[in-house]
Every structure is written in structure tokens, then in C-alpha cells.
């Protein structure tokens, strides 16, 4: 509904005009405010940058002048003959040679900012100073803190270090010094150095500062030179400032959330970097306030515009609200519109309702089909069935209903003849043909619970009886065969009085359809006509033929296997047993054949390559008989080839050895030694041939033998344990219980009371090796 409101508002001319003016005015105000702020900021940058850079350059010149004067003195001294004579004198004459240089040094200490000038001899480690004279060793000098770093002068033409005086002169105690050093070079080697100590406070007192800015001085190594106390910002923050400004003349930075303009200049004499910080908060305060006021004014203009639109439409929306409440009383919100727009608004609502109705109509067949699938598979309870029936089947009666199942004959062969796309197309065509055929006289819903079948829920529209449904279905089977070339059979269940009984009717239709096993293809069968046959075929089916077929198969006797299949088929036709029971027995037989092939690693016959039970449920008995004969022929040949392999012969030897020595306490080592192979090789070979481990097979033999003794003798459990290879009765009972889920004593007791096995012995999981017995 919100989308509808917005669409209507934009379609109204008055609303569009107000909206256009609102957006235009607010956008102009915003742009003017941002443009004014940017222009003022640029002008402010220009005005602040120039004087600050000039001030930094003045201070650079001040420091350069002081160091240049000191450096000139150091250079002159490095070439002074007296200094050179001192540096070249040996230890015995060094004191005499230091007298004249000392006088020269005292004469040069004239400025108040120079504390002392010293000449240091690197070869003799002696020093002569204007302050304390000659010392034969550096350690004897009252102040020799420079000895730790002065050696660096051999690699650099000039050194400037900030340091604290640590000597014994009380007048200079804790005095900050700036030491300038120049090397003295003779014969290409640095033999000494001239050191001039400048007063830190006197030098930086000559710098010019501004009350609104802060200045910092850093050396080449990034160490802070000035100021030494009362730092306006933390040093860690200044490291970020130096990184951000890099080599630019100025940059805008933030320190502790406050904006500054940072300017810098570099000294070409000392290599120092001079940085100034100018706070911008006060300078930008007024222009920031003006910008924020402009933005606020823009927001106010937008609010005024939307208020005008709302006020303009408030009265016009009131009639439409009432109409919308009448159309949709369950909805709290409603659309808006002017009185002259009521007709298109109502048309819109009606159009949406019609669109939703069409969608519901289109999806209704799928919902009904899913309902039928869930109904016949009993996936719904009574309450859910009643609710969905009421919603999906408007116009249908409460009953009665007919259930019809149509199945494709020889489904696996039919699938093999077409591609998957063609199969889907033919099934779709068959579904449409069936629905169209019955639509003239029946209400119809279809579902496809299996790939081979189609289920129809039918309700007579004109009161036709079951006989007419049978005739219609018989006619439909012929049409499907003629038009689509698909042979189908059909089964009709008994009539269901209520929709909840449809699942029972479906089961009956499946039973009727299953008689395709005897009657052949292309037939329609009524469940009601089979009641007598069901009573006659209630006798139990003889399943010994399965074991006979398997025994012939394992013996690779294809002729005997085919003979037993033909005998079974003739017996089934004669007795007319229930088809569904026969299909289940046949499915068990085929599953066992598949298992034998898998254990032996044999290639499956084509009929079993993608086997499911529906593959045989769509065949008649003649086709099943032929299929079984083909399978037995191929499998018997494969097993015969396998029986001639040396691996098979070896496994038979192992089995024979285990059966002969069953009463002895033999182990895997004994069994492997019988065929002169290792335990690992024998175990792997036995596993590949039989599908079970050697240990499990031996255990199974012992348990089966124990079952025979428990049933056919009066021996005690301990004696039986000894006879099947267990020296310990408790071990035997534990293994027996694990295998049979019952104790030996209880097994014997059940056998006596029922005269049969309480738990039939498990068969040898040995593939095809049973034929050796």
C-alpha cells in the first residue's frame, strides 16, 4: 500500500510541483552552504600558510646563523697550525704542544652562548679545552660525555648533538648543551676533532614565536630538539603528524580530535625540521556554524514541503480511506486519493484482486495433485485432510469417489526406448489425454506417485455408475495405445463413500492392477471382481523354489535353474496366488542375485543394472519367466568362470579347513598356514571373494554348529562350547548372544517349545562358496 501511495502522490500535478520546489530549494541551500565553507577554508589556508612559513624560515635563519658562526670557528681551528701540532705530538711532548692551542681556544670563546671549545686527539685520547686546559686522557676531563658518540665524526663531516652537561663544574650543572663537532683530517685520516658547546637556552631564546601557534624542532634522526618542556601535544601524536605531512609545506591534521594546520621548513645547515601547529577551531568556528545553519535550513525546507503535500492531500484521502476499509476491512492501513481519482484507485484494487485470483486458479491443479498424492500415501491426518479438501475442492460433493490407477506395461523396456525428455513429453501428453477424456462426465484430479503409474480421483458429474467407469477406462486404454503407442493396464478400486476412504480404494486398485501378472497387458480390472480370487489365493506361497534357483545358480547349472523357474511359473499359474506376494518373493530373489554379483565382483545382467521392484511389477508372468531365465543363464556363466579361478579354489580350501577343524581352537594364523600364505594376504583375499572377514565366517560356522547341537542333542552348554572350538564357556555364551541376541540356554528352551529355531541361523555371508558343501 505504501508503494501505491507514493505512486499516486507522484501522479498528482500539485504534489509534483510542491515536491520539485522543495527539493530544488533545499538543494540550492545545501550547495550554497557547502560552497561557501569550501571557499572560506581555501582562503583561510592561504592567509595562514604564508605568515607561518615565513616565521619558520626566519627561525631557520636564526639557528643557521648561530651554527654557521660556530662552524666557521671549528673549521678555522681544524686548519690552525698550533692545533695540528698538538694532534701530531707524541705522548711525551703533548703537554708542551697543548699550551699554544689552549690560548687560541680561550681567545675564541667570546660569545656568551659558547660555553667551551675543545680539541680532541683520537690517537692519544688526549684533550685540550678552553675551560679546563690539557688532559692526557679523556676520562681525566671534568666533562667527557661526548666520548660516547664523537667517534661518529669519522663518518660524517659535521655532528650536532643535544646533550645535558654532566661535568663537575657547578656553574654548568644540568645545563642543556648543543655540541657541534668538526673533524681534523691529516694525510687522509681523521686524527682529531674540534668540539664547540653552545648554550641550548640562549640559542632558542632568539627564535620568534606566535601566541596562537606551537613550534617544534626535530633533528635528522627524528628526535625532538625543541621544546624540552611544556609540550603542547603528546610526542606520539606528533609522530603521526610528521608522517602525515611528510615533505609537504603544509597539511591539515587532527590531534586529540582538534584540527590544526601544520607548516614545516628544513635547515640546510643543521638538517633540522621546524614544524609549527596552528589551531583551526577558533578560526573555523564561525564558518562551521554558518554551514550547519544552512544545512539545517535545507532540512527545514524539506520538512515544510512534505508537510504541505500531506496537508494538501489529507482531506482528499479521507473518502478513499473509507472505500478501502469497505473493500479490505481486515487491513488497518488504507490508500489515499482525491475524489476525482476514486475510479482509477478502485480499478487498481479490483485489478490486483483479479490477478491474485488468476494465480490461485492456475496453482489449484498442482495443489489438488499434491493433495491426492499425500492422501493415498497416508501422509495427512484427518483434520488436515478435511481442511485442504474444503479449500481446494470447492464445487465437489462430499462423495462418493472412484480411484483409478493406470500403469505403463513393461515400464523398464519402455524407458529404454526413449530419452528422458521424450519420456516426460509422452507422460505429460498421457496425463492431459486422460484428464480430457474423463472431463466430460467426471470431476478429475491426477497424481503420479510412481514413474510407471498415474492415479485418478474421480467423482461423477452426472451420476454414472461403476460399470460406465469400467467401460470408459477400457476405451481410454485403447485410445492411449493407438495415439501414443503406449501399452497401459488399469485397476479400479471399490467406491469410497468419503474422501478419507480414498487411500483404501487406492490400495484395492493397486491389488486389481497387480493381476496383470496373470491376465497380461492392456486390461482393465475391477477389484470387486477379484474377491473370489483373493479368497482362493490366500494359501501360503512356497518359497523353497528360491533356494532351489539360487542353489542351481551357485552350482553354475543354468539348465537346472531354468527348469526350476519354469516349474515355479507353472505352479504359480495353476494356484493363482496373490500377485503382490509373488512380486515380493521375486524381488527377494533378484536382490539376492544382485548381492551375489556384488560380492563376487561380477558384471550384472542388463535387466538388473538399474533394478527396482517396479521393474518386475509392470511385467506379466511370461515376461518375468523369460527374464529370469536370461539372468540365470548369464550369472551361471559368470560364476562358472569364477569357479575356475585360483582365488576361488584357495577360498574353498580355507572353508574346508575351517569346517574340518571347527572343534579345535584354531586361529587366523593356523588357517593361513594351511595354504602357506600370510595372515594379511589370506584375510584380504577372503574378504574380496566372500564379502566377509575370515574371522566372522569362522565365528558364524561355529555358532551354526552350536545351534544344531543345542537342538539335536542333550549335551551341556560347556560341552557344546568345547565341540565348536571355545575353551571358555563364558566366551562362547558372549559370542552366541552377540550373534543370536539370545543365550544358548534360552535358544534351546525356545527350540523345544516351538520345535523350530527361535532365531534362524544366519546364512554364510560367503558369496558363491556354498556350492562346495
TrEMBL record:
TM stretches of this protein: 17-37, 293-312
Entry keyword set: DNA-binding, Membrane, Transcription, Transcription regulation, Transmembrane, Transmembrane helix
One Pfam family from the record: HTH_18
Segments forming domain HTH araC/xylS-type: 652-750
Molecular function via GO: DNA-binding transcription factor activity; sequence-specific DNA binding
Protein name per Swiss-Prot or TrEMBL: AraC-type DNA-binding protein
Signal peptide stretch: none
Organism: Paenibacillus typhae
Gene3D superfamilies with a match to the protein in the record: Homeodomain-like
Disordered, as annotated region: 744-773
